[in-house]
TrEMBL record:
<keyword id="KW-1133">Transmembrane helix</keyword>
<dbReference type="GO" id="GO:0005886">
    <property type="term" value="C:plasma membrane"/>
</dbReference>
<feature type="transmembrane region" description="Helical">
    <location>
        <begin position="92"/>
        <end position="117"/>
    </location>
</feature>
<feature type="transmembrane region" description="Helical">
    <location>
        <begin position="188"/>
        <end position="221"/>
    </location>
</feature>
<keyword id="KW-0813">Transport</keyword>
<dbReference type="InterPro" id="IPR035906">
    <property type="entry name" value="MetI-like_sf"/>
</dbReference>
<keyword id="KW-1003">Cell membrane</keyword>
<keyword id="KW-0472">Membrane</keyword>
<feature type="transmembrane region" description="Helical">
    <location>
        <begin position="144"/>
        <end position="167"/>
    </location>
</feature>
<keyword id="KW-0812">Transmembrane</keyword>
<feature type="transmembrane region" description="Helical">
    <location>
        <begin position="7"/>
        <end position="37"/>
    </location>
</feature>
<dbReference type="Pfam" id="PF00528">
    <property type="entry name" value="BPD_transp_1"/>
</dbReference>
<protein>
    <submittedName>
        <fullName>Spermidine/putrescine ABC transporter permease</fullName>
    </submittedName>
</protein>
<dbReference type="GO" id="GO:0055085">
    <property type="term" value="P:transmembrane transport"/>
</dbReference>
<comment type="similarity">
    <text>Belongs to the binding-protein-dependent transport system permease family. CysTW subfamily.</text>
</comment>
<feature type="domain" description="ABC transmembrane type-1">
    <location>
        <begin position="58"/>
        <end position="264"/>
    </location>
</feature>
<dbReference type="InterPro" id="IPR000515">
    <property type="entry name" value="MetI-like"/>
</dbReference>
C-alpha cells in the first residue's frame, strides 16, 4: 500500500502536468475540427477530402518522409557498422560526434544550409574553383535541399538503433563464417544484414513518423512543391484564418502518426517475442 502511495506521489504531478499541457490542447484541436457555428459537423473533413491542395500535400508528406528515412538509412548504416567495429573507448568518442547535430538548433542549421547550398554558396564556389568554370547547381528551395536538411537531422536516430542490433550479434558467428571460407560480402548479406533488420526496421519507422511533422526544414529549404502537412496547417492558420480546416489537418496528421507508431511498436513486440522464444 505504501509503495502504491509513493508511486502516485511521483507519477501524479507529471500526469496532471501532461493532462493540462498535452491532452487538453489536443482535445480542443479535435473539438475545433468538428465544431462550427451551427454545431458539430464533418464539413471540414469533407472539404479536405475534396481539396486537391490537401491531397497533393498529403502525398508529398508521405513521399518526403519515406525518402528522407531511406536516405538517412543509407548514410547511417555504414556509420553504425563502423562504430560497431571500434573499441568501446573509441566508440564512445565517435558517438559524441554523431550527436553533434543535436547541439545546434534546427532553425540555425537550416539557415546555415541556405548559405552552403545557395547558387552563390560555398558548395557552388568550391565546384567552380575545381572545374574552373562558373557552377550554379540548384540545391536550394527544392526537394534536394529538403533531403539534405532532413537527413542531417535524422541520421543519429538511424545510427543508434542499428548500432544496438549490430552489437547484439554474436561474434562467434563471424569467426565461424570466416573459418568456413566466407568472404566479407557474403558475411554481410547472410549474417550482418539479416540479424540487424530489427534495428533497421525500428529506425526506419521511427524516422518516418518523426519526419511527417517537420515544419522548419521544408519551409526554409524547400519550394512550393515540397510543402508538408505542418506547412499546410500554418497556411490555414496564418493566411486564410480557417481554424476549422487547420484543426482537421492536425487531427488527420495525428491519426496517421499514431497508426504508424502503433505499427512500429507492434513490430518491436513481435521481434522481442521471437527473440525470447529463440
Amino acid at each position: 500500500m505504501k509503495s502504491r502511495v509513493d508511486g502516485l506521489l511521483y507519477v501524479g504531478p507529471v500526469t496532471v502536468f501532461l493532462f493540462f499541457v498535452l491532452f487538453v490542447p489536443l482535445a480542443y484541436v479535435v473539438y475545433t475540427s468538428f465544431w462550427i457555428a451551427g454545431g458539430p459537423s464533418l464539413s471540414a473533413y469533407q472539404r479536405l477530402l475534396g481539396s486537391e491542395l490537401f491531397l497533393r500535400t498529403l502525398w508529398s508528406t508521405f513521399e518526403i518522409s519515406i525518402t528522407a528515412s531511406v536516405a538517412s538509412l543509407l548514410l547511417g548504416y555504414p556509420i553504425a557498422m563502423h562504430l560497431a567495429k571500434q573499441t568501446p573507448r573509441k566508440r564512445a568518442i565517435y558517438m559524441v560526434l554523431v550527436l553533434v547535430p543535436f547541439w545546434t538548433s534546427i532553425l540555425v542549421k537550416s539557415y546555415a544550409f541556405t548559405i552552403l547550398l545557395g547558387r552563390d554558396g560555398l558548395v557552388n564556389k568550391l565546384l567552380s574553383a575545381a572545374f574552373h568554370t562558373q557552377v550554379q547547381l540548384p540545391m536550394l528551395f527544392n526537394r534536394f535541399g529538403v533531403m539534405v536538411g532532413m537527413t542531417n537531422y535524422l541520421i543519429p536516430f538511424i545510427v543508434f538503433p542499428v548500432l544496438a542490433s549490430l552489437l547484439s550479434i554474436d561474434k562467434s558467428l563471424y569467426r565461424a563464417s570466416e573459418i568456413m571460407g566466407a568472404k566479407p560480402p557474403r558475411i554481410f548479406f547472410r549474417i550482418t544484414l539479416p540479424l540487424s533488420l530489427p534495428g533497421v526496421a525500428a529506425a526506419t519507422l521511427s524516422t518516418t513518423v518523426m519526419s511527417m511533422g517537420f515544419f522548419v526544414i521544408p519551409a526554409l529549404l524547400g519550394g512550393r512543391k515540397d510543402a508538408m502537412m505542418s506547412n499546410l496547417v500554418d497556411f490555414y492558420t496564418r493566411e486564410t484564418m480557417d481554424w476549422n480546416i487547420a484543426s482537421a489537418i492536425g487531427v488527420i496528421l495525428l491519426a496517421i502518426v499514431t497508426l504508424a507508431a502503433m505499427a512500429a511498436d507492434q513490430f518491436q513486440r513481435r521481434d522481442s517475442k521471437k527473440r525470447v522464444m529463440a
